[in-house]
Amino acid sequence: MRRFQQYIDGRFEDGMATFESIDPATGRAWALMPEAREADVDRAVAAAERAFTAPAWAGLTATQRGRLLARLADLVAEHAPKLAEIETRDTGKVIRETSAQITYVADYYRYYAGLADKIEGAHLPIDKPDMEVWLRREPAGVIAAIVPWNSQLFLSAVKLGPALAAGCTIVLKASEEGPGPLLELARLIDRAGFPPGVVNVLTGFGPACGARLTAHPAIARIAFTGGPETARHVVRNSAENLAAVSLELGGKSPFIVFADADLESAVNAQVAGIFAASGQSCVAGSRLIIERKIKDAFIARLKEKAEAIKIGSPLDQATEMGPLCTARQRAHIEGTMAASIGAGARLITGGKRPEGEGFYYPPTILDCSDVTASAAERELFGPVLSVLTFDSEEEAVRLANATPYGLAAGVFTRELARAHRMMRRIRAGVVWVNTYRAVSPIAPFGGFGLSGHGREGGIEAALEYTQLKTVWLNTSEAPIPDPFVMR
Ligand code: NDP
Does the Cβ of 428 fall within 6 Å of ligand 1? Predict the structure, then answer.
């Protein structure tokens, strides 16, 4: 079995214990992972705290920090095949997706490499003639970064990139499910030449390792991606250290199709939106909100495409859909499906696990138009599409916003004015019009409502890892006047 190590203070080491990582395509263990305990977390945070002020890191110019990030971007691109293979083995995500995703993981590091020396402060035109006032943007401090199991390389790049560009140091906790790619990434971070302790990578269980990390007194900021329930734990933990918290949580994203849309394009985007990554994507367009007059034609075409999806070994380049990451995830989907069908939802395709090994679940479409079904309300994190129907634009908006989440939305229409109205009225952090699942390091990403707060990507993300310092300089030679009056 393959063995991975954790990375603390510039050293690779075994954890206090190990646990087996399961290959979701077979259901069998394929690697041994280190299990970080509280003491490991404490050592990693102490290393990050030392590194934060050590001249080897704090003494670098922003341009030099950018060069380290650029080297990391090159190493990620160079080792893309290996990283993709480990991510596929460990999470079941198909190799064509993990390979493609590594390309833009490298792009994110490159973007923040370039941004490092463009994080500027300001000089204020202050209303006092003798004063000069500047705003300095200083690094926030030691960051606790926590990621879920899907897309760990990507979800950590959107935290490491801006945090390192800003001059922070980091303890990154991988998910206990599929941590292999992040532990491999640690080798590249080390090779890129980041001083010891600047980035530390651990994997351990949430209630022990994650809880200790997020409550640790030396943590200045927590960058969390995961589900809302865990986020509540994280926010409660942060009551200890009063760290700033950014939350990237789940979604139940609407995918709205008007009758005037380019239907073939919308069908393809819907396939990408719900069946890519077997639906294990925070932005999964899991609620199709379709104009009634095209419903039958649209569903017929979508069903045809869903049933033609090539399901198989995630390591095979031809495979389009692999297994779910965990058996628990599949059981959760099956439970919600049974309850929804019991409540009157109509199964259009899928809905039955295939025979054989691995945690597979087929592309599934469920008509929830006339019922209240939990499948149309809860995030399933799987390849299950719920269908809802509308007759008017007003009703489409109402259905789209009838969720406590607000991460992403898709709108398909060729009518320009309507596209503008919809993007204004939909409550979500990202609205895609006539496209879906597009990302870029240049574009901020994040949610409204239960989908969290804070932004990843773009300049805004780098600013989140800074704290503002206001500096006042008195240029007057005159003695300070009346000490009992505020100046
Ligand atoms: P979880 O919320 O279960 O876990 C996320 C991370 O939190 C894991 O590393 C987990 O560790 C850790 N954790 C668990 N308990 C605690 C705790 N008490 N304190 C601190 N950390 C803890 O999410 P999943 O792994 O199940 O991932 C799926 C969720 O992530 C979905 O809701 C999905 O929508 C969301 N997501 C959001 C994205 C976004 O950008 N908005 C992107 C991708 C996913 P461990 O694994 O050891 O339990």
Answer: no
Query: Which sign does the torsion angle of CA 148, 404, 245, 68 carry?
Result: positive
Characterise 206 by phi-psi region: left (phi > 0), alpha (psi -120 to 50), beta (else). alpha
Tell me which of 156, 219, 225, 445 to substitute to probe ligand 1's pocket, judged by most ligand atoms within 8 Å of the beta carbon: 225
> Is the distance from CB of 340 to CB of 348 less than 8 angstroms?
no
Q: CA 270 → CA 197, 352, 385, distances in Å?
A: 43, 21, 9
At the top level of CATH, which class does the domain 2-249+451-471 belong to? alpha beta
User: What is the 8-class DSSP label of residue 102?
Assistant: H
Kindly report the protein residue whose alpha carbon is nearest to atom 9 of ligand 1: 175
Start-to-end CA distance of the chain, whole Å, equals 69
Query: Quick check: CB of 23 below 6 Å from ligand 1?
Result: no
The single-letter DSSP state of residue 373 is -
Can 248 be counted among the known catalytic residues?
yes
- All structural domains of the chain with their residue ranges: 2-249+451-471, 254-433
What is this structure's pTM? 0.96
Phi first, then psi, for residue 255 (nearest 5°) are -125, 100
Give helix then strand counts, H and E, for the chain: 15, 21
The architecture CATH gives domain 254-433:
3-Layer(aba) Sandwich (3.40)
- Give the ligand 1 atom nearest the CA of 151: 43
How many residues are given for the chain?
487
Mean pLDDT by 10 residues, the chain (487 residues): 96 93 96 96 98 98 98 98 97 96 96 98 96 98 96 97 98 96 98 98 93 97 97 96 97 98 97 96 97 98 98 97 95 96 96 95 96 93 97 98 98 98 98 96 97 96 97 95 87
* Residue 368 annotated among the catalytic residues of the structure: no
